[in-house]
Amino acid sequence: EDLAFTAAGDAIVLGVPGGLIQVDADGKIQYRDTSGDALVAPLGVAFDRKGVLWVADSKGPALRRVAADGAVTTAATVDLDGTALLAPNYVAIDRQDRVLFTDPCIGRVMRYDPKNDMVDAGVDFIPKIEGGPNGVALDPSGAWLYVLTENTALLCAAGKEKPGLEDEVAGLFRVAIKDGELGPRETVQTSIGLFGDGMAFDVAGNLYVVGDKAANFKLSESFIAVLRAGENTLVPFVSTTDRIIANVAFGKGAFGETTLYAALLAVPPFTTAAMRGLVKVEVGVAGAPLLP
CA dist 236 to 5, 121, 158, 202, 223, Å? Predict the structure, then answer.
């Protein structure tokens, strides 16, 4: 579902059921060796400054770390108030090398501090009205954390009260960051679709947002929209009706810094396993560094 580029820009790492794969610039795929704790259903993936890969293991359910030698350890299985994680989904690294991760079923964005080995902060959402938080992205200035939400009715067996199956509650929000801490949040745009997923910034401050719409339990559109720097309304960029775009990331190294890569997801009954894959779109603007 998610993708992360290695520091050298020589491979894309993705989570697959039971483990991790990597794809080189020529499209060659191979499994990455791991040991230690099991990776059950890794969704979100992100590298920190030390080369550690952080993983949101949805069916673990846990936040896990994968060392450079492939050793997997578990960082967190509960949120900041001791509630057991239900379905961790997405991860990102902040400027202090703390790990931001989401659990849409709990309805919370959380922050894990490796130095203190604890979840020490969070931002709550109301899944029935606002959707549960999925993708997150730090803007290039470091002043805002953007959060994209999704309808949790199909995806969460447990958790907070859920919306109707086809309620388009996905929305885009942003959380102020002051002195490195999470502050109040603001609504950017609501009712953008059924699901919101991944996001990525370019160096100009434009935000590329993934979303999906459905009608009568069938996929009607999967799209990438753009929130232009300084604006508050998403504009269309890429759209498809027979694939589900999950997450996006700008390339590095051999993959090209101005190319946006998208992971395609299989979600029955909307799409089948044969529709999984990676696609790329030339944007013409370089992606913003994920670890400024």
Answer: 26, 34, 33, 16, 8
Rounded CA separation 233/63 (Å) = 33
Structure-block tokens of residue 257: 């810094």
Strands 35-36 and 71-76, by their bridges, are: parallel
Dump strand ranges (E) for 24-107. 29-32, 35-36, 42-47, 53-57, 62-66, 71-76, 90-93, 99-103
| pLDDT digit string, tens, across residues 200-256 | 999 999 999 999 998 887 889 999 999 999 999 999 999 999 899 999 999 999 999
Residue matched to tokens 């009706």: 241
The tokens for 4 are: 């992360």
Model's pTM, two decimal places? 0.96
Q: Using DSSP bridges, classify how beta strands 277-282 and 259-265 pair: parallel, antiparallel or unpaired.
A: antiparallel
Q: Which 3 state secondary structure label does DSSP give 35?
A: strand
Q: Is the dihedral of CA 97, 292, 227, 8 positive or negative?
A: negative
Q: What region does 75 belong to: left with phi over 0, alpha with psi -120 to 50, or beta?
A: alpha
